Amino acid sequence: MRVRSIRFRLTAWYAAVLTAALGLFGGLTWFSLRHRLIGDIDRDLEGRVARFERYFTAESKEVAGDQLKDELEEFCQALPPASYIDLRGDRGFVFRYPAAANPPTRHFRIESRQFQAGGQKFFLEAGEPLNGVLHTLELLRLLLLSLIPVVIAVACIGGAWLSRRALKPVDDIAAAAHAISIENLSDRLPVPPTGDEVARLTEVLNTMLDRLESAVKTLSQFAADASHELRTPLSVIRTTAELALRRARAPEAYRASIQEIAAETERMTRLVEDLLVLARSDTGTVEMPLAPLDLGEVVRSVCTEMRGLAELRRIRIHLSCGSDPVPLTGNRAALHRLFVLLLDNAVKFSRDGGEVLLTVERGDSHIAVAIEDFGAGIRASDLPHIFKRFYRSDRARGDGGHGLGLSLAESIAKAHGAEIEVRSREGEGSLFRIKFPVRGARTGTIPARAVSRV
């Protein structure tokens, strides 16, 4: 199938519609004029027959025979040229005007009437030739057939020119878009100052380019940060292995080197797993099975798991949940991971001997889980960036993390339709509140933003 340009299709459709419209107009004009002209002839014939009947009825009472025919001949001479009159009586009376005229052909318009006069029945027939009407209609037909193609040709040329001018901004946009690549992704399409559909389309495309540029920058930064984070453990592994192989050592030294390599390998494995989870969540290829669960039970299991780590720093975890079930539809492993990440941060940045409050709040439209610590807090300048991948404040750079924990937590929350609210003041502590919308118990799957191993 041959592809036609929009310009060609617009011109073709315009020509087709115009041809149909002009054809319809010409046909209606021709038939209307024909009907009008023939109607005028019919009305004239009807009046002519009525006048002839009245005249014949009056004259037949006074004269008869050839004298009557002479009177009728004189009356008919006043009729339009080429008129035809034929009168026949049931007793043999015959009058024809003109006398030598042939019977009317198919190009005559005939009006017939029967009447009685002087005790006889007469049949009257009057005719008018259609030559003038047919000549007028033929001239009109030739005029329409000669002018309509000219009008269509001129209109098609004008339509092609107009469509080319109307689509020129589209060609300019296409050329500008074709010139944009990854090297000049910051360039934008020229917006025509017309305010029409093309201008709105250009603005939408520029908005799309903004999003693409932002995504590419984020991806480039993500790749750079991931490479940087992976380079450190790889360097440690390589250096440790090279030092261990440089000269013979005692078994204990080899064991220490292998333990260091294993620790760095474990650290790198966790980082790669988190990166894979975030990459899959960005493309929507990971799915989390949803099922009804007791959110209180999930929170209590997280507290039990984290209490050992908290006791090492003499930090107390206070759970306020109640004994009643807290029904929610979600993924148990992902929610467990979410609360572990947030509670681990709260414990990590609390002062030794402090406390962490974990509260489950129930409302009419939502269920909220609040995790509050009273430690170092977060600087106001860091708050807008804490959910960015690989972002670590100055205080967090020595904790051995990669800056992915809060990004994973936010992704898990979004996958459940929840949002994370953060309030923090430097030196006073932080409060993270996860608000889940209340839904009916159901099962199914939703695209996961982040699922990590628990």
Summarize the SSE layout with pairings.
Layout: H1 6-60, H2 65-76, E1 84-89, E2 94-97, E3 108-117, E4 120-129, H3 131-179, H4 197-246, H5 251-283, E5 287-294, H6 295-312, E6 316-320, E7 327-330, H7 332-348, E8 355-362, E9 366-373, H8 405-415, E10 419-425, E11 429-437, E12 444-447
Parallel strand pairs: 6-8
Antiparallel strand pairs: 1-2, 1-4, 3-4, 5-7, 5-12, 8-9, 9-11, 10-11
What does this structure look like?
- The chain is of the alpha+beta class and 454 residues long.
- It has three domains: 6-133; 197-281, Helix Hairpins (Orthogonal Bundle), CATH 1.10.287; 286-447, Heat Shock Protein 90 (2-Layer Sandwich), CATH 3.30.565.10.
- The chain is built from eight helices and twelve strands.
- The strands form three sheets. The protein has a five-stranded mixed β-sheet with strand order 6-8-9-11-10.
- β3 (108-117) and β4 form a beta hairpin.
- α1 packs antiparallel against α2 (65-76) and α4 runs antiparallel to α5 (251-283).
- The radius of gyration is 50 Å and the shape is rod-shaped.
Can you describe this structure in just a few lines?
With 454 residues, the chain is α+β, with helices and mostly antiparallel strands. It is built from eight helices and twelve strands.
